[in-house]
Amino acid sequence: MRDVAIIGIGQTKVGEHWEKSLRHLALEALQAAMRDAEVDRVDALYVGNMLSGELTGQEHLGALVADFAGLRGVEAVKVEAACGSGAAALRLGTVAVAGGLADLVLVVGVEKMTDATGPEATAALAMAADADHEVAHGLTFVALNALLMRRYMYEYGYKKEDFAPFTVNAHANGMNNPYAMFHMKVTPEAYAKARMIADPINLLDSSPVADGAAAVVLAPADWVRGSGKPVIRIAASAVATDAVALHDRRDPLVLEGAALSAHRAYQQARIGPEDVDLFELHDAFSIMAALSLEAAGFARRGEGVRLALDGEITLQGRIPIATMGGLKARGHPVGATGVYQVVEVVQQLRGEAGANQVPDARVGMAQNIGGSGATVITHILIRET
Amino acid sequence: MSLPSKNWRLRNQRYRLVGEICEKCGTPIFPPRDVCPECEAPAQTPYVFSGRGEVYSYSTVYHPPAGFEKYAPYTVALVRLEEGPMVTAQLTDVAPEEVHIGMPVEMVTRQLQEEGEEGVIAYGYKFRPRMG
């Protein structure tokens, strides 16, 4: 197996792009990544996307995006793993380069969500859950997370306002990210007053529906070693699964898929959680941030919220999360999110994160979750000196 | 609008809580999945659940997905059945503020969703506070 490096990154601003279609968003991100990598061709293209068929009536994105980007003829496929589609595409790209089946691989995550109404988008997102046994009973994604949050509060004795630091931190960091959807400070008081979506989850616990695309270019690490450019190596790329339906999990408050995925990633990278300088986790909802911190070994069971209350998740804390705004403030264009997370880790490791720079960041982890925890993809990136 | 075949196929589990039991390790299984989640043995022996359980967690949905607008707000729950498995369902015959974790509930058959004026009316299990 060959070491794989990320040699280029690109992203569009996340938001409501009324003037841009899915293919335009993908093009903008992938052209930026190819410019950054200084390449004008690739051997393969992997497109991460969840909902193009349901929300825009367009499937077959591999060929569509390749053709639209002037890459006609290239090997190209779409990869779908619910909200984990972006990182799943990166995983396949990494496998291709590591295995020597391709040298230059382009990975783009893209989602166009604002062509549909709110209830349509809500119904489409619920397709990541169990159609026969969750969705048929009227469950939404927010409701599934609300069930987790309510039980978490009950078992560990937290109050609703104890979750505020996740939202406050994400929005504080989003202020300095030009690509973030929201540039809006949130106070604990605003959090306490936010409109309820599915009790106890309110609007400020939830990541927004949005459009966006992000891209990376992969190459064998040996191609860039000695070039003078920073070498950002993919030290781990791990996928794990769990039951799709919450009711089928052994213990719904333990994200076993996330724990397994993180464990595999630590083994591949030969590091532990204590070596990680920043963690881009899947904070689609505040409760997911808490459960992810616990599953990845940064907090003991029931103490993910305590970690946030103690200020350890901020840029100055023990384990900074959502350093560029996270899903909450940067936005959550679902199939693109996993690639955004990795692009942001690369920004941090290159020292290009501006006001949000984590000092001397060398090891960054990104974890992308599909559904309520059923597909979990963890990448660890390490900057070589 | 879809054909009624899907609802028909699910009739035993939806109307009567028919799951399965693993002949090898004795684990009762709901929803039915044909492979035991505990010991991975094939498990296709039907098993009828009592319908009694208690609320593990709950939430009230104020922003429903397309197709459920006319039912909102409604309360959903994870119910721990007394035989062991957990099931996702709506609660009925109870005000949201009266629901609590640990509340004893029992299964009833109710309308789940109506697919428009000429579409299928899907029926299935919901849970209400246990009587007596």
Describe the protein's architecture and organization.
The complex is a heterodimer of chains A (385) and B (132). Chain A is of the alpha/beta class and 385 residues long. Helices cover 36% and strands 18% of the residues of chain A. In chain A, strand 10 (363-370) and strand 11 (375-384) form a beta hairpin. By secondary structure, chain B is mainly beta. Chain B has one domain (5-129). Chain B is built from two helices and eight strands. The longest helix of chain B has 6 residues, at 11-16. Classes of the chains: A alpha/beta (385), B mainly beta (132). Chains A and B meet through helix 5, helix 6 and strand 5 of A and strand 4, strand 5 and strand 6 of B.
List the helices and strands and how they pair.
The complex is a heterodimer of chains A (385) and B (132).
Chain A lengths: L3 E8 L10 H16 L6 E5 L3 H5 L4 H8 L6 E5 L5 H14 L6 E7 L6 H8 L15 H16 L7 H11 L13 H6 L2 E3 L2 E2 L9 E9 H4 L6 E11 L14 H14 L8 E3 L5 H10 L8 H6 L16 H4 L4 H17 L12 E8 L4 E10 L1
Parallel strand pairs in A: 2-3, 2-4, 9-10
Antiparallel strand pairs in A: 1-7, 4-7, 5-6, 8-11, 10-11
Helix pairs in contact in A: 4-14
Chain B lengths: L4 H5 L1 H6 L1 E4 L6 E2 L15 E4 L3 E10 L12 E8 L4 E5 L13 E11 L6 E9 L3
Antiparallel strand pairs in B: 1-2, 1-3, 4-5, 4-7, 5-6, 7-8
Concise synopsis of the structure shown:
The complex is a heterodimer of chains A (385) and B (132). Chain A is of the alpha/beta class and 385 residues long. Chain A has two domains: 130 residues, Peroxisomal Thiolase, Chain A, domain 1; 211 residues, 3-Layer(aba) Sandwich (Peroxisomal Thiolase, Chain A, domain 1).
